[in-house]
């Protein structure tokens, strides 16, 4: 319809014409008001994340990929094609991970997934399947216990566990008291640093898990960063939550009669998730997390998820992969200088205060989140623009959880 026709009909534009039947000049505003009344701003039900504790969210990356037509870099399918879903296939994945460490000049760890280890779930008995790495403190026996499946998540966990083993081997000659991570967060960070490098599309192409022609474009980089953020950034509030909750129990702030209520409340505050069904004090959902009945401190994982980016950046600078390229593209595979820098940190164990070890190895004496922020900066920019365009609200209702947990 041309402008002239509008003049003829008496309307300024088609919008006015379409809305005429509502006989109200405020109709658009009224609709916006109604939308705001029903717009969902509640926390997200916890069963939607594909992880029993909603601690990492990367299983949503297919649904949330900003550019569904660009490459996704999910290597689960490639792993399943390449490796059999049994002990032989799983052992191959360990070999690939081990080779990353040896390529930078670190120790061979094949003993840790050899005959004495348990790398797949035994068929004949119940075992604790939560992955772990063990130092037998005799300088030669180191073992991994894991019910490994062939998928990307477990491929990352393999690197995580080998990071522990690499630490054990490097500090094995120190006196017993010093045979620990510089602090517990360091121990958790080592394998994750390797996984940051291994997960890069560039590296996955090198080891034949992503097709060489899989184009790296601006779009595919944003997809990759979102997937990584769903894994590592979404973890941060969870990493903090578990001990923030236990510290309050230990110092008496949380009373025994409120264990479930306070758990649901803090989970809503920190993670923005709520239980999908109503809970009461007969439930103790925190107890479903391995480390809670296992009495293992958890803040170490929050620490490691910040520290690993700081270490990764330092190694990438040493390997001259950064700042020549964006930080998230850095692969320090086969770089002996980066390996030597990491080795120095590992060999020190807990023989000095961790801030001194950090200073002597990467030249910084404080833990600092600027590396993780820098890593995700292109994603943050994308999300800011997207939010401005879509007018997305930030945050969630801080009281919605109350409807989902009964208080005594
Ligand atoms: O417990 C672990 C490792 C063993 S130290 C598999 N992690 C935490 C968890 O699974 O809750 C690694 C990431 C966080
Ligand atoms: Zn660990």
TrEMBL record:
Keywords: Carboxypeptidase, Disulfide bond, Glycoprotein, Hydrolase, Metal-binding, Metalloprotease, Protease, Signal, Zinc
PROSITE patterns named in the record: PEPTIDASE_M2
A Pfam family it matches: Peptidase_M2
TM segment ranges: none
Annotated signal peptide: none
A GO CC term attached to the entry: plasma membrane
Binding residues annotated for chloride, in chain numbering: 300
GO MF, any single term: metallopeptidase activity
Biological process terms in GO annotation: proteolysis
Cystine pairings recorded for this chain: 129-147, 316-330
SUPFAM superfamilies membership: Metalloproteases ('zincins'), catalytic domain
EC number: 3.4.-.-
Keyword presence, Metal-binding: yes
EC top class named in words: hydrolase
Binding site for Zn(2+) 2: 160, 164, 188
Cofactor: Zn(2+)
Residues where Zn(2+) 1 binds: 160, 164, 188
Residues annotated as the enzyme's active site: 161, 291
CDD domains, per the entry: M2_ACE
Cofactor binding description: Binds 1 zinc ion per subunit.
Family the entry assigns: Belongs to the peptidase M2 family.
Protein name, per record: Angiotensin-converting enzyme
Organism for this UniProt entry: Orchesella cincta
Organism lineage: Eukaryota, Metazoa, Ecdysozoa, Arthropoda, Hexapoda
């Amino acid at each position: 319809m041309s402008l002239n026709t509008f003049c003829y009909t008496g309307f300024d534009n088609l919008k006015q014409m379409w809305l005429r039947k509502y006989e109200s000049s405020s109709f658009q505003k009224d609709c916006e008001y109604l939308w705001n009344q029903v717009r969902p701003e509640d926390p997200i039900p916890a069963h939607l994340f594909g992880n029993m504790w909603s601690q990492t969210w990367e299983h949503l990356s297919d649904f949330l990929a900003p550019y569904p037509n660009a490459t996704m870099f999910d290597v689960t399918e490639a792993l399943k094609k390449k490796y059999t879903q049994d002990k032989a296939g799983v052992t191959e994945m360990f070999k690939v991970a081990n080779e990353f460490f040896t390529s930078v000049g670190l120790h061979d760890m094949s003993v840790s997934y050899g005959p004495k280890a348990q790398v797949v779930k035994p068929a004949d008995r119940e075992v604790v399947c939560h992955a772990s790495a063990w130092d037998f403190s005799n300088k030669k026996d180191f073992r991994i216990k894991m019910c490994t499946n062939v998928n990307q998540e477990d491929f990352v966990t393999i690197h995580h566990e080998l990071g522990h083993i690499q630490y054990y081997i490097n500090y094995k000659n120190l006196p017993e008291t010093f045979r620990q991570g510089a602090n517990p967060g360091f121990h958790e960070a080592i394998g994750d640093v390797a996984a940051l490098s291994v997960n890069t599309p560039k590296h996955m192409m090198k080891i034949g898990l992503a097709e060489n022609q899989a184009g790296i474009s601006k779009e595919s980089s944003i997809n990759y960063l979102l997937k990584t953020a769903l894994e590592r950034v979404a973890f941060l509030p969870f990493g903090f939550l578990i001990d923030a909750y236990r510290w309050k129990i230990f110092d008496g702030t949380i009373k025994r009669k409120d264990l479930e209520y306070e758990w649901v409340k803090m989970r809503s505050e920190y993670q923005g998730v709520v239980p999908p069904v109503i809970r009461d004090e007969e439930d103790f959902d925190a107890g479903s997390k391995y480390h809670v009945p296992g009495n293992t401190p958890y803040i170490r994982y929050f620490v490691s998820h910040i520290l690993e980016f700081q270490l990764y950046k330092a190694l990438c600078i040493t390997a001259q992969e950064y700042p020549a390229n964006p930080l998230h593209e850095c692969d320090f595979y086969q770089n002996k200088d980066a390996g030597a820098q990491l080795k120095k940190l590992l060999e020190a164990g807990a023989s000095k205060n961790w801030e001194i070890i950090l200073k002597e190895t990467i030249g910084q004496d404080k833990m600092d989140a600027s590396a993780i922020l820098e890593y995700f900066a292109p994603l943050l920019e994308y999300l800011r623009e997207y939010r401005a365009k879509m007018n997305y609200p930030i945050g969630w209702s801080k009281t919605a959880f109350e409807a989902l947990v009964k208080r005594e």
